[in-house]
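The freezer alarm interrupted the setup, so I double-checked each line after restarting. Inputs confirmed:
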Amino acid sequence: MIRLEHVVKYYGETIAVDDLSLEVGEGEVCVLIGPSGCGKTTTLRMINRLIEPTSGRIFIDGTDTSKIKPELLRRSIGYAIQSVGLFPHMTVAANIGVVPELVHWDKSRIAGRIEELLVLVGLNPKEYAQKYPNQLSGGEAQRIGVARALAADPPILLMDEPFGAVDPLTREKLQAQFVRIQQELKKTVVLVTHDLDEAIRLADRIAVMELGKIAQYDTPEAVLSKPVNKFVHDFVGTDRALKRLSRINIQDVVRPAPSIAVSASLEDLASALEGAQYVWVVAEDGRLMGWISRTSLSRATSVKQAVVKGNVEEIAILNTATLREALSRMLGQGFNSIPVVDGNGHLLGEVSLHDVEARTAEVGA
Amino acid sequence: MNNQRIVRWALLVAVIGLFIALIADMRLLEAALRFFFPQESRVLHPRASLLLLVWEHLQLVGVSSGLTLVIGLPLGIWVTRSSGRNFLPIVTDLTSFGQTFPPVAVLALAVPVLGFGLLPTVFALFLYGLLPVVRNTVAGLQTVPPHLLDAAYGMGMSRTQALFKVEIPLAARVILAGVRISVVINIGTAMVGAAIGAGGLGSPIIAGLVQDNLAFIIEGALPAGILAVLVDQLLAGIEGLFAYAPDKPIG
Amino acid sequence: MVIFTARRRLQNSPILQILIAWSGVATVGFLLLFGRLNNLSVVQEFLGRQERFLQELTNHILLFGGSVVTGTLLGIPLGIWAARSRKAEKPVFFLANVTQTIPSLALFGLLIAPLSSLSLAFPFLRELGIRGVGATPAIIALIIYSLLPIVRNTYVSLRQLDPGVLDAGLGMGMNRLQMFLRLEAPLSAPLVLEGVRTASVQAVGNTAVAALIGAGGLGHFIFQGLGQAAPDLIILGAMPIIVLALIVDAVMRVFVRAATPKGLALESR
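Predicted 3D structure, all chains:
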């Protein structure tokens, strides 16, 4: 879908991009990553001709981009930048509507699209459409930046550190949202980041760049497990195994877990604890309440009395999280298993250290 | 517009209405002046009614400011585009150099060249009024954050589209401030224009000075002061319409 | 044009800048001195009125100089007050802004009437030379005009002060006076002096108008020339005013530079 052929960019005497060739397939997310000055942003901006290559050619869907007028090219490519760049004098709706207007969609279609996109990025259209950028939080602004980039339904999306300017917590949510949106829309995405974890989480393929060249261009798993040279090896860091775990979602690993209702009888408790060290206890509304261990069975007068209560946020993990977080929580709390809940706190199952070990072995050395 | 703004605008419109009523009907003014200056045989400058004087004054300022805008805005825009960039330093230097010139001197120097009356006055007002307009247009356009322009071009706006949809709206407030400064200064300089035969609110004042008639002086000075303040407030209000961020405190 | 481009290149050396800018003026000056331009009718006019010219020049300088100095002495405390007191802020700026918009001739005019009646009512004022027309209303108006730039710049410079600086000073054990003298004053000096510069250049121009109400000054020649339709007289008045304004501007810029502590980055224009 996007093909760069022997692209070179000189700034005076300095070479920024050195004979780079790259191909991104349709519907793929390609992440460009590398240290400062490696040429990743330059490469990105050559795709939509904000920067012109010194030599080499770039093809989109078989067409040489240098043959199209730059403005027209860019209207068919979504562009989201770190500083978001929302126009302060326009409402959120007007901002999103800029490109559709440039390509002459009719008003009702634009209005519908604005609503659709706000919902897609998780913001209530009634509330947000007429707001001004200075009334938005960082996370909201970035989401609207993405919505704006998607407005005219371009097949390609270029993103330059799109989640960089927010705090880590918000960034995580935004990344999760991106993954969800991408699964739905299947755009061809080229994304630049300096955050390796982000790259690993979002990419179908990662291009690790150094000094204007691509050192390795492969799937995240491959880059992590088979770094091609010392640079890539050092760049991805020595905790590669752990990093791989962040590619695995808990919902793919979760197993059903033994649990009983708080209203259950002592007999049910006893039979549930047969062959198990502990059992999870669920409240009347279905939310996870806590656990009862085998050792307290003998002293138990009722399930309600015996249960060791715990705060759902503290003892459980959401099923949207990654295996890596699960591992981190288990190690931090000193347990070898952790219950998995959904957004309402209902118990879905559990994950144990044993599962982590098994998965790590599966992915390969 | 929030309530505070609506109140301000309503007040402004009311005062402007009052002002127009007062100058149109001079009896109140005449009575007041007679009260304060019983010794004068005449209290109102005979050459023209106050309404006409105000109108003359407004014409002077209006025509010269109009010319200033027609020439100054495009000049300021051109000098910040790639085609005119070479001229930016010269234009910047000239405008800041020119602003040190006292406007009265510029007006006076126009006379040997252009004679008396309306022509030198309008010309001097136009020329001097260019300076704040050009300077503020340049400054306003230059302070548009570059990352917004990057976003605009990246989305597919052409240079012209970005200029009109992004740069100018964002620079509007600063540009309007320059227009405001220009107009207010011109109202002041036009007063002196009466001395070279251009008419306007300066003429009763000068007549009063010559004939030692205080009432004449007030007839010119009071409306002039009020006019200047009202125009200033009006333009400030228009400027405020272009605020996209909460208003910053004075200063 | 040459002067402008040369000036640009020498941004870093103010002395050299000023020298080059004035080379043009100096040439004219030399020519004048050596009688080369004697044939110019302007110069004829000048030679015919040398004494009067010098007198009016002195008047002009006294008028604008005196009022700017007074304006500074009044304006800085006002600015400090406005910066420190929330209550004072709005009224001070409102008044200063409104008075600034009033045309100079109008303000002169508005002051003449009350001053006239005052001097009629209190004869001792007449003794002092305070009358309705003449220098008195001019000086009062000029002082009022110089207030806004000075008050505003004083206010902004104090408000812009990094509170961390004052905090550090307090932590080091400085008292209020020391903080003011060693921290606030030197750090706000450049901006305040810029305000004085603006006020001074403005005052040179407003003083020219003051001649109309009998205050004297170089404007006298302008209006006399206008009345007599004598262009040389007009130029005799207008040119020196412009030169004076330029000199005042240049001198004040040097002051501003001198007052800028080395560590502060200030825009060159």
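Quick read of the result. Residues 168-185 of chain A form the longest helix (18 residues).
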